[in-house]
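About this split. The held-out portion is used to measure sequence recovery: a designer receives only the structure tokens and must propose an amino acid at every position. Recovery is the fraction of positions where the proposal matches the reference. Here is one held-out target exactly as it appears in the evaluation file.
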């Protein structure tokens, strides 16, 4: 694929590295000439120094041949303009980060596939792990209305040694996978949870704390 990456911050540089390693034709665009010069010494790609909101710069990057355009700058205005121009040029796959939450709806209304600011993702992850130290990872769904939570089962907790059907889980809660060592188990009600298991649970947002306690504390909390 012909991939254009706009912005050579940490995200853009790592995307370039991955895309090159996967044998894609990669062109990067950045306003910083030093970043453009440095990256071509590291990877087999083309760099274009300039403002990606300029049609001239996008044409130089081969926008008309691009399969994917990814914009990763710290400016939502730049990211949006790049996405709109790429869409007008007929680029099939458009991806961008959104730095400010209040701008998310603007991108959605434009039909652009967005990714949250990674700093916000890290902050949310740290905060949730502070509140729920037994949570290994989580993913928010439907604008925060539901979550997929990865809970580590510890010895002595309510869940350890119990089958899923005996957990007493509320409706609308689904255990979707259990990771046990190198094995991934697609569970059913008879699956017995063991200490050390990493359990992936789909939970509606209003039930998260209750269900987390059911998996994590020594006795059932209702």
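Reference sequence for scoring:
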């Amino acid at each position: 694929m012909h991939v254009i990456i706009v912005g050579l911050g940490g995200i853009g540089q790592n995307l370039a590295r991955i895309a090159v390693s996967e044998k894609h034709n990669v062109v990067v665009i950045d306003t910083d000439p030093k970043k453009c010069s440095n990256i071509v010494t590291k990877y087999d790609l083309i760099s274009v120094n300039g403002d990606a909101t300029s049609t001239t710069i996008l044409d130089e990057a081969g926008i008309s041949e691009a399969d994917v355009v990814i914009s990763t700058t710290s400016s939502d205005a730049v990211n949006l303009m790049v996405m709109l121009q790429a869409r007008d040029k007929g680029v099939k796959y458009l991806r961008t980060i959104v730095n400010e939450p209040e701008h998310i709806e603007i991108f959605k209304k434009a039909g652009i596939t967005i990714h949250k600011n990674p700093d916000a993702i890290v902050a949310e992850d740290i905060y949730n792990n502070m509140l729920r130290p037994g949570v290994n990872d989580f993913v928010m769904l439907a604008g925060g209305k539901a979550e997929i939570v990865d809970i580590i089962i510890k010895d002595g907790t309510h869940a350890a040694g119990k089958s899923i059907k005996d957990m007493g889980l509320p409706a609308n809660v689904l255990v979707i996978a259990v990771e046990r060592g190198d094995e991934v188990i697609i569970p059913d009600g008879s699956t017995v949870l063991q200490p050390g298991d990493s359990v992936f649970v789909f939970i509606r947002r209003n039930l998260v704390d209750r269900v987390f306690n059911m998996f994590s504390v020594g006795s059932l909390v209702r």
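Annotator remark: The chain has seven helices and eleven strands.
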